[in-house]
Backbone:
């Protein structure tokens, strides 16, 4: 039986062995054993690297860091609190993807609110929110919009469809983030070296690899858009190390695409068009990181009536994150999960303290599940 995508072709042991040998050779010979730090900024990469045990195969001088690639992890506490507060209002049906349910706000979670009687519904696709709104015309249906450029087009399509159908009791919390400007900010973080980006495959399929060219040029930092299979990731690391050697010899960094079976330089024109119609770029706050200019999406003038922040009036007190949690430093590449004193003790996937352990795509959850046995704290 033929399959759409042959995963086994990307898990060949001889090819993996050859790529791992090449990585060791590049670090030893071209880079003279000098340390190299590479960062991925995609939750799917975070999990794929850990699941395949790739860290344990790397030479001692090569560090693989997990940046802020998990959308749930970068959603500020105040935004989670706002969604929780909205769910408590009479006449509100709060809809969300499942990964937001257990994320702790300052006092509660959406899961707890649902158990206590709030009407919180998990969606498998945002278009379901339209059906719920049409079935419940007396209620305000609110969707918690969390995600990167991979999520924004489907939410945009939902809003366009709702407008077309004349649905007026549906709105969205626009908590969206965008990747390229975050890479600029991360390149400027003082106190930790960063030699290259493993750029996200899914996001790049939407925005195109060209979106990283300003970052590569301005910071002279190599960027390689990489797929998610073990061989993709190993091949992406080889491409990055080749570039790091060029940069350290005085050359210039560029954007390359290892994941060319899914990503073009220009991206997906239909998805980009609907994003441009429904949203406009705005400054956005990233949890534990702060405000990154032009790194978010809010509604354009034409669709501003769908902004739940204007319809749902809730007070959200300012509160600090969980004490002792170092998710922010982990996402900035300054620390790793095993540096956190709460890791695998007070904080586990069952009893998570911070967002990086709650989300399956968080660095702490991936480390807890896959890396604990195979790596030492770097
Ligand atoms: S182990 Fe838990 S408390 Fe520590 S940084 Fe990760 S999520 Fe935060």
Residues:
């Amino acid at each position: 039986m033929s399959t759409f995508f042959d995963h086994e072709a990307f898990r060949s042991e001889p090819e993996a062995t050859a790529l791992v040998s090449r990585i060791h050779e590049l670090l030893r010979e071209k880079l003279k054993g000098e340390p190299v730090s590479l960062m991925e900024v995609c939750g799917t990469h975070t999990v794929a690297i850990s699941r395949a045990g790739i860290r344990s195969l790397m030479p001692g001088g090569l560090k693989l860091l997990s940046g802020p690639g998990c959308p749930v992890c970068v959603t500020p506490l105040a935004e989670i609190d706002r969604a929780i507060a909205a769910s408590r209002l009479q006449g509100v049906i709060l809809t969300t993807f499942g990964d937001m349910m257990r994320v702790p706000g300052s006092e509660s979670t959406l899961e707890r609110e649902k158990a206590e009687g709030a009407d919180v519904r998990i969606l498998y696709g945002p278009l379901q929110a339209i059906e719920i709104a049409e079935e419940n015309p007396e209620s305000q249906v609110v969707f918690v919009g969390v995600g990167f450029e991979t999520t924004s087009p489907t939410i945009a399509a939902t809003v366009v469809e709702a407008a077309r159908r004349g649905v007026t009791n549906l709105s969205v919390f626009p908590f969206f983030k965008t990747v390229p400007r975050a890479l600029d900010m991360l390149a400027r973080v003082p106190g930790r070296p960063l030699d290259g980006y493993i750029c996200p495959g899914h996001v790049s399929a939407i925005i195109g690899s060209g979106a990283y060219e300003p970052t590569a040029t301005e910071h002279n930092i190599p960027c390689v858009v990489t797929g998610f299979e073990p061989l993709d990731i190993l091949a992406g690391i080889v491409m990055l190390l080749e570039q790091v050697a060029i940069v350290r010899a005085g050359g210039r960094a560029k954007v390359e695409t290892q994941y060319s079976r899914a990503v073009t330089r220009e991206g997906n024109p239909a998805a980009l068009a609907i994003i441009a119609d429904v949203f406009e770029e705005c400054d956005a706050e990233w949890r534990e990181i702060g405000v990154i200019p032009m790194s978010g999406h809010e509604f354009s003038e034409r669709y501003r009536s769908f902004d739940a922040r204007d319809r749902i009036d809730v007070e959200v007190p300012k509160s600090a994150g969980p004490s002792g949690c170092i998710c922010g430093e982990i996402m900035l590449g300054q620390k790793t999960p095993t540096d956190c004193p709460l890791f695998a003790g007070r904080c586990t996937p069952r009893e998570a303290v911070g967002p990086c352990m709650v989300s399956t795509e968080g660095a702490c959850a991936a480390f807890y599940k896959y890396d604990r046995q195979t790596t030492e704290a770097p």
